[in-house]
């Protein structure tokens, strides 16, 4: 459906032209004085210069025409030359009725759908998923859903950190603890066991132990590096261990992401890109892009306009080993080969920005991607604790994602049980939904690039700009709808009628903005814009609710219209939270 602002602009443009002014002056915006009008046009001020006429006279000419137009209840020219507009309630009701019938709630599918690979999550295998990966998962999931809702082909790739020293460390530590394992018998030629020689719990303990130990034991670290090398060069036993690590770790990751309502289309990792490296390196050398500098192989990526230094992109270290940049470049090669995407979007901590500047420039310069493929880096800020420092547990360690979720769910459960009588099992389920809304909304309502303070008390509050407040509003609507049905009335065929009071019209105006908010949020990769929209929508709804006797309304047409408005509000809110990656319970 056409956006309401565009429909209004069409009429205003028409009036400008009919009154003898150029259409470029007919720019309409949402009013910045909602107390005076709903939409406004300031074009008469700009036109004044061009036509050497007082702006108020131009505004007057345009308004004279707009006043005849059934789209507007009121069009007025206000000094020095503003054109203030109020929509006719009939026009607005008609727009919302069409919105209600539209299967996409007025949001148009992209005319030219794009294929976009979104690289998010980025957990490191065998290391516990910690809150540092939380933001990537939450923000990435929401962008993926937004894109899909708008009709784009979104391919989510978790891009596992499954390549590197951590594997070697696990192998040597495992060898130290259980030297008898068949994987370490160099003469063994048979099949390796199906069952992993460790659980996820052990695995998560092994890695930090090995990592800490290696810090002050150089010979141990050397051994781990050697094991990594052997692993990467086909050592059978080590590869069998790697398989176990992957299986155990990925199963655990999937469970964690499931709890976050996050899913990936691809479970590729850094290791999948390795086979592409040799040919890529050859190609870069042959075409003169890469050159040797103190033994290392590099590609220059600095540009004249740089204000800060952008070091050369290192492709191979002097010992021939590849790096994080190499892997990301090879992943681009792989993605281009497999998918030919229109865009690759990376949702990664903003502290990695320089890495991506180098990778993107290098990929462009060496033509790994063509001009028709966009590379985008969405760098997000740090999640801080109340002390303003990166979020830690009370003991000072990095908080594991699982314990974070558990503590939020507990808090929610307690609140729900305190609030009213409810079956404990249902309360548990509800607590999960509300807890997730608290975490996700708490994160997504901030502009992604900014740091934010993770404040459990604030995020779990049922009041204010929080996830639980949004859910509470949805549940309130659902409860009214239930009661309406319990009174023997049907939700089928209820129709929105023209508003006859302010709070009702405000709600309708807010609803009518949905398509433009959604489009704009995706264009700017800004989920926080959806949050601020639903917060406004929930607020206007609640104002309407407090001023209106819905269930006791005697005029049944009027009542049915309220109910229809509630249905649309519920649908828009639920659609938005679905895009944000959480959902509402029936009761809470
Ligand atoms: N595994 C990385 C980390 O934990 C994040 C990966 C981000 N994605 C990428 N293509 N580099 O920091």
In summary, what is this structure?
With 588 residues, this protein is α/β, with parallel strands linked by helices.
Question: What order do the helices and strands come in, and which of them pair?
Answer:
Blueprint: H1 4-18, E1 28-30, E2 39-41, H2 43-51, H3 55-66, E3 72-78, E4 82-87, H4 89-101, E5 115-119, H5 131-149, E6 153-157, H6 165-177, H7 200-215, H8 218-232, H9 236-259, H10 270-273, H11 277-286, E7 290-293, E8 296-299, E9 313-316, H12 324-339, E10 343-349, H13 353-365, E11 374-380, E12 383-384, H14 401-419, H15 424-444, E13 452-453, H16 456-459, H17 467-486, H18 502-512, H19 514-523, H20 527-547, H21 556-580
Parallel strand pairs: 5-6, 5-10, 10-11, 12-13
Antiparallel strand pairs: 1-2, 2-4, 3-4, 7-8, 8-9
Helix pairs in contact: 1-3, 2-3, 4-18, 6-7, 6-8, 8-9, 12-13, 14-15, 17-20, 17-21, 18-20, 19-20, 20-21
Arginine (ARG) binds at residues 119, 122, 124, 159, 161, 328, 346, 348.
Catalytic activity: tRNA(Arg) + L-arginine + ATP = L-arginyl-tRNA(Arg) + AMP + diphosphate
Domain Arginyl tRNA synthetase N-terminal: 2-87
GO molecular function: arginine-tRNA ligase activity; ATP binding
Structural class: alpha/beta
Strand content: 5-15%
Beginning-to-end CA distance, first to last residue: 34 Å
Strand order of the largest sheet: 1-2-4-3
The residue ranges in which pLDDT falls below 50 over 5 or more consecutive positions are none
Ligands, deduplicated: arginine
Count of helical stretches: 21
Overall geometry: globular
Mean pLDDT: 95
Biggest sheet statistics: 4 strands, antiparallel
From the alpha carbons, calculate the radius of gyration and give it in angstroms. Answer: 29 Å
**β-strand number:** 13
Q: Tell me roughly what share of residues is in helical segments.
A: 40-55%
């Amino acid at each position: 459906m056409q956006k309401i602002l565009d429909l209004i602009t069409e009429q205003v443009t028409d009036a400008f032209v009919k009154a003898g002014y150029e259409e470029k002056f007919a720019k309409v915006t949402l009013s910045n004085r909602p107390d005076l009008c709903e939409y406004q046009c300031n074009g008469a001020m700009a036109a004044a210069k061009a036509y050497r006429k007082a702006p108020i006279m131009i505004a007057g000419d345009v308004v004279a025409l707009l006043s005849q137009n059934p789209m507007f209840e009121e069009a007025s020219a206000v000094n020095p030359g503003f054109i203030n507009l109020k929509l006719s309630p009939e026009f607005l009701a008609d727009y919302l009725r069409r919105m209600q019938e539209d299967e996409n709630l007025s949001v148009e599918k992209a005319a030219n759908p794009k294929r976009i690979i979104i690289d998010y999550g980025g957990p490191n295998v065998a290391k516990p998923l910690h809150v540092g990966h939380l933001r990537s998962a939450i923000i990435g999931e929401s962008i993926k859903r937004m894109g899909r809702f708008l009709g784009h082909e979104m391919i989510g790739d978790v891009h596992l950190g499954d390549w590197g020293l951590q594997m070697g460390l696990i192998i040597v530590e495992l060898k130290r603890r259980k030297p008898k394992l068949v994987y370490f018998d160099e003469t063994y030629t048979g099949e390796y066991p199906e069952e992993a020689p460790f659980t996820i719990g052990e695995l998560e303990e092994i890695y930090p132990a090995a990592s800490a130990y290696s810090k002050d034991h150089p010979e141990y670290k050397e051994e781990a590096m050697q094991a990594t090398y052997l692993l990467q060069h086909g050592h059978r036993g080590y590869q069998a261990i790697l398989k176990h690590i992957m299986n155990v770790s990925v199963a655990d990751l999937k469970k964690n992401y499931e709890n976050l309502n996050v899913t990936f289309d691809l479970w590729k990792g850094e290791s999948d890109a390795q086979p592409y490296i040799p040919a890529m390196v050859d190609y870069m050398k042959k075409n003169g892009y890469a050159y040797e500098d103190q033994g290392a192989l590099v590609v220059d990526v600095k540009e004249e306009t740089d204000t800060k230094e952008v070091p050369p992109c290192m492709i191979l270290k002097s010992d021939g080993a590849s790096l994080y940049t190499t892997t990301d470049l090879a992943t681009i090669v792989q993605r281009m080969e497999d998918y030919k995407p229109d865009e690759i979007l990376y949702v990664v901590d903003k502290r990695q920005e320089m890495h991506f500047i180098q990778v993107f420039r290098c990929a462009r310069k060496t033509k790994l991607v063509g001009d028709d493929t966009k590379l985008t880096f969405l760098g997000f800020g740090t999640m801080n604790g109340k002390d303003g420092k990166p979020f830690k547990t009370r003991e000072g360690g990095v908080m594991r994602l699982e314990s974070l979720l558990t503590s939020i769910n507990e808090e929610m459960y307690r609140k729900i049980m305190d609030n009213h009588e409810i079956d404990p099992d249902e309360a548990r389920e509800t607590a999960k939904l509300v807890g997730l809304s608290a975490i996700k909304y708490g994160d997504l309502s901030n502009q992604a690039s900014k740091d934010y303070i993770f404040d459990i008390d604030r995020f779990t509050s049922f009041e204010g700009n929080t996830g639980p407040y949004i859910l509470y509003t949805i549940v309130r609507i659902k409860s009214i709808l239930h009661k309406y049905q319990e009174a023997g009335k049907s939700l089928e065929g209820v129709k929105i009628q023209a508003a006859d009071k302010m709070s009702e019209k405000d709600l309708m105006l807010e609803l009518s903005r949905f398509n433009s908010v959604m489009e704009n949020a995706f264009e700017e990769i800004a989920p926080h814009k959806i949050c601020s929209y639903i917060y406004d929508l929930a607020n206007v709804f609640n104002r309407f609710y407090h001023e209106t006797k819905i269930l006791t309304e005697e005029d049944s047409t009027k009542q049915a219209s309220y109910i229809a408005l509630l249905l649309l509000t519920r649908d828009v809110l639920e659609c938005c939270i679905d895009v944000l990656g959480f959902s509402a319970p029936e009761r809470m």
